[in-house]
Amino acid sequence: MAVDRRIGKTRDAIFKAFLSLMEEKSFEQITVHEIAERANVSRGTIYLHFVDKYDLLDQCVEQEMTELRDRCMGVQENLDFTSSGPLLRTAEYVEQHATVFITLINNSGIPAFRSRLHTMLMEGLAAQIDMEGVNRGMNKEMLLHFMASAAVGVMEWWITHSLPISAKKLMEDISILLERNQMGPQPLDALPRQ
């Protein structure tokens, strides 16, 4: 048990050192030597845990997204996916851990973050989306991708702009946008001519 705790502490120290360096400089400028110095470990210790700094970045994003998923998406409930449920908890978690997410997104973490968040939202929306009414006859997978991509894009904008509005306001606006999407656009021949 003591060995596992030491391994966890070492990995945490490396992650913290890595994130603090990413707040100061671009990912490309960071060296494994600097990470080791900041974490107060040897370079060899870093290579025991990670293949290289790219693996460290991937695992750092993975750890944050796993924590986010477990805290925000893991609760089983029959609530609306948007403002009253997991999506609001996700935004609130990001808001509470803003420094980490802003650092990751603004410093080469966008593809990994976007992919993981998109997957999480797809899973959450799949159980919530109503394929009757206005969605009858639509391809569910395409609709899920559309809605998840829109939500991820807005979350990405929110993080890259240093959270200019509250998590609650963000989710209220996303909820409105998702509801509008359910209504669908008017047919082209029903639009007024100019």
Automatic annotation (TrEMBL):
InterPro entries the UniProt entry points to: DNA-bd_HTH_TetR-type_CS, Homeodomain-like_sf, HTH-type_Tx_Regulator, HTH_TetR, TetR_C_Firmicutes
The record lists the membrane-crossing segments as none
Quote the Gene3D superfamilies the UniProt record gives.
Tetracycline Repressor, domain 2 (1.10.357.10)
What keywords is this UniProt entry annotated with? DNA-binding
Which sequence positions fall in the DNA-binding region? Answer: 31-50
Annotated HTH tetR-type domain ranges read 8-68
Superkingdom of origin organism:
Bacteria
Q: What is this protein called?
A: AcrR family transcriptional regulator
Task: Tell me the organism.
Answer: Paenibacillus silagei
